[in-house]
Amino acid sequence: MMYDTMTDIQKQALNTSMFKAYDIRTKSAALTKDLAVRLIHAVGWYLSEVLKVDEVVLGRDARLGAPALMETALDLFTQAGLQVIVNPLQISTCQFYFSCMQHPKAAGIMFTASHNPGMYIGMKLMAPGLQTLAMGSGPDGGIACIREAYCEGKSCNLHTRERNKVLVRRYLDQYIDYSIQLANVEPNTLDGVSLLTDFLCGAAGTEVVEALQSLGAKVRVRNLVPDGKFPAGDPNPIIDESIRPTWDIMRSESFDFGFCYDGDGDRMDVMDSHGSQLTPSFNLSLLIPEIKRFFKEVHAAGFFGNAPWEPHMYYDVKANPLSVVQQASRGIGVHIIRNGHSFIKEALRQNLGNQYLVASEESAHYYMNFPLDLKDYSKGFAATENTLYFTILTAKMWSQNPHLYEAAMQKQQSIYRQREWPCHFFNDEHLQPVVDRVEELFKAQGLKVFKTMEDGNDLDAVLMRSGLPERIDANTNLSGDWLQVAERISRSEEGMARWEVASSSSERLAQAVKDIHSVTDGYVEAKLAEYE
Q1: Is 15 exposed, middle or buried (0-12, 13-18, 19+ CB in 10 A)?
Q2: Angle between the 172-182 and 387-400 helix axes, to the nearest 10 degrees?
Q3: Hey, what's the torsion of the CAs at 399, 285, 261, 39, to 10 degrees?
């Protein structure tokens, strides 16, 4: 393979580091016009020669680097004989996924860099059937194949005399109607409910506010207008500097609860009336009865054949153990899974027949097998994201059952947690030694180390536990003293390692966080890394 034989200087010149584990992502300045054209050619070659599709769906969010890249794709793809279906306006990634559901035989490309700062741009890629392409995953290796074509300089087969069509299609109204109908919400369900929303100048505001207001909610908006300069701060709701003003408003004024979203709208953070986050794992535990209700109808319609009703779900390696027990108590099988949107969606897609329905990540991503047609399940399902659906369903459940959310918040607050924090290393060569040192430190303290999922596949993270079993279910007793440490090297960000700690004891939490910093602080002090 050409990539494997290239020197580091050659790789740097071509900016090959933009090919990540789950998508393509880089600083806009590093993707020069020539490299952008080379990249679009390689992607177009993959669409035509490997996927052998006739059409592709394109979307973009508010990033300043997205329009030029989309315009290049429109020009080259149509010359290559592909029909392009596009909404040229800013839309969320989840609205883009819904657009792809309307064209399941097409490939799809979303121009976005998700929650990264505004200086970044990239692509999320899909094969027909909304199969997410990742490094080594997808036809002929997915992104690995595209990287090889890029390095070799492969080009689309251009037809200078005849271009294919560009079809402009907007699915905002259909997306909202679909999400409301799937959530089984009546028109006046949210009458009298007061909500605070913050979109961090990303692309999800239109669909969320329009849907919530149509259901009767009183919605206060912040940073609603898409702006690729992201003046409110990095478009990531887990960054304190970006979201603190919204927390302060939530605490000083009167709202029932609230939502925060990232730049491309595929992350949804939930806040209570005091501005405290309810983690996705706890929130999902309260949504499971409604999700099961829908899929029980799917089961009754015969979609799963003669198999008995036995639903399952995936939970994040970082999930609070109390939330996993609560999920299992809802009558659903719980199974740990590695991080990574592409990996989780592919697992859901492959295991739909075994009734794997839904998943979440503590980064505020929610996943589900969504029906292509709400009236005809035989048309199939797409393992994807629809943050609008989970927003509406959360708003419905919270407004109707506030006591359940109060109890979940109390349970969440009964343990001690340091939400995942990153350390950015300026040279990737430091990443593995650092996580290895942290692992050895906790192993020496007697923590058990887990690196594989139940099926034996790599967890792509290190999960360390004391006082907790490897398998958590509805009968797991968490009344004793326990500690959980999760660490991972990010596959979507350059030079980034991340840690999250949870414990039954504030003292053990503080000590565990201190122990991790005893390893990473030295790199920061030596100016080899920085905390973000």
Answers
A1: middle
A2: 40
A3: -150
